[in-house]
Specification:
- The structure is a single chain.
- This protein is an all-alpha fold.
- 87% of the residues lie in helices and 0% in strands.
- It contains four helices and no strands.
- Helix 1 packs antiparallel against helix 4 and helix 2 packs across helix 3.
């Protein structure tokens, strides 16, 4: 029989998936919501970050598709791992609840 990792470690893994999901969602919003006037000002100064943001905004299809795939992947992994984490706990609780009825 395989040993399960400690519950604290499992919760940290789920939290890691959720943080990853949030980081990619935040990146998407940050790129799309930057003001054009502010971006133009930094591009004029040849700021490398501003030039990268301009490239992403000029051709958003690859960036947005990649971010959406990653957000979906992290969210699905968090849900699947979290569901597997709670399955044992819930099955014991529900079994004891149903036997008490």
């Amino acid at each position: 029989m395989l040993r399960r990792p400690p519950m604290g470690m499992e919760l940290l893994i789920v939290l890691g998936f959720l943080v990853g999901n949030g980081l990619f969602a935040g990146a998407e919003i940050a790129i799309l919501s930057v003001r054009k006037t502010r971006l133009r000002e930094f591009i004029r100064r040849k700021d490398p970050s501003a030039l990268a943001i301009k490239a992403l905004r000029d051709h958003p299809e690859r960036f947005l598709a990649s971010v959406q795939v990653l957000i979906t992947t992290f969210g699905t992994a968090a849900a699947a791992f979290g569901g597997a984490l709670l399955e044992h706990t819930l099955s014991v609780s529900l079994a004891s609840w149903s036997s008490a009825s």
